[in-house]
Amino acid sequence: MTDPMLMQQTEMANLIRRHCTEEGAQHTAIPSLFLIRYSHTTEPAHTVYNPCFCYISNGHKDIFLAKERYNYGPSDFLVATMNLPVVGQVIQATPDEPYLAFKLEFTQNEIIEVLNNFELPSVSREHTSRALFVGDIQSELLDAVLRLTRLLDRPQDIPFLAPMCSREILYRLLQGPYGSTLAQIAMEGTSTYRIRDAIEQITHHYNQPLRIEELAELANMSVSSFHRNFKEVTAMSPLQFQKQLRLQEARRLLLTESADAADVAFRVGYESASQFSREYSRSFGAPPRTDIKRLKEQYERTLLPSAE
Question: Helix 108-115 to helix 158-175 angle, to the nearest 10 degrees?
Fold first, then answer.
């Protein structure tokens, strides 16, 4: 890493330390911007990534999409171009050197707005790409990230300058090696755009029966082509994708409500409580009751003062 980039990375870490003093993800005064801090490594966490750009200024993290592993740290950035069920784990963090990260969510319309101001050399309309990628952070991109984060020290400037910095981050990404991958989600007629519509349908109706023929028709593809393209984008089949959404929502409900596992199973779309319990155990490593008890105990331990 060059000295200028090391200085940028150090400044970014200092900014996050100052503006994110609590453990976990904190929403900031800048719309769609989250800062994240962890003083210890974490257990694997199941979540759904919205379209977002992520940068780690200190520490390292693993992201798993289906069986694929994406590792990234201060020399990299990560982008999710669609709603994706993933598993994330902070693998490098200590109290003295905490994990510090920046996450900026974006929308299809924001991509379109940037694309309207310049034209990419060529974007394939038929080729589909994975909706998650890790790239090398460049000084120009990191500079835009820094300028956006600095605005937290000047809240009066946020309404005017934050949208400019956010657009520049997207502009730098679109001009980079993954530009066509990012552009595909906003360009009507591309295979990726059509798969995005199907993903949104599943995401919004995850508790309904999955009708592949209807999803293929929505994507304007044959059933076989839809299956192939969906897996190319998400690394999983439509059924596996839906199952991850159902199980993650079930876990959230069990954690936040005093609900029975069988009741939650039916609420998220399962017709069989025993099937739900089996799939829950395979995904989270323990049956619902045992898993939720363990998670609550872990949470309570984090609230206790350190013995050191």
Answer: 70
55 in Cβ contact with 142 (< 8 Å): yes
Rounded (10°) CA dihedral 113, 119, 122, 123: 10
Nearest Cα neighbor of 270 from 246, 292, 236 is: 246
The letter for the amino acid at 215 is L
| Tokens matching residue 252 | 């959230």
Phi first, then psi: give them for residue 26, nearest 5 degrees: -120, 125
Instruction: Tell me which residue has tokens 């959230």.
Output: 252
Residue with tokens 């599943």: 202
Tokens of 119: 């034209």
Which spans in the chain are helix H?
A: 3-19, 108-115, 139-150, 158-175, 179-183, 191-204, 212-218, 223-234, 238-256, 261-267, 273-284, 288-303
d(CA 57, CA 73): 7
Half-sphere CA count of 90, side-chain side, radius 13 A: 22
pLDDT per 10-residue tile (average), the chain, 308 residues: 83 98 97 97 95 98 97 97 97 98 96 86 72 97 98 98 98 94 89 94 96 96 97 97 98 92 97 97 96 87 50
78-105 burial, b if ≥16 CB within 10 A, otherwise e? bbbbbbbbbbbbbebbeeeebbbbbbbb
Q: 3-state DSSP call for residue 230?
A: helix
| Predicted TM-score (pTM) of this structure | 0.93
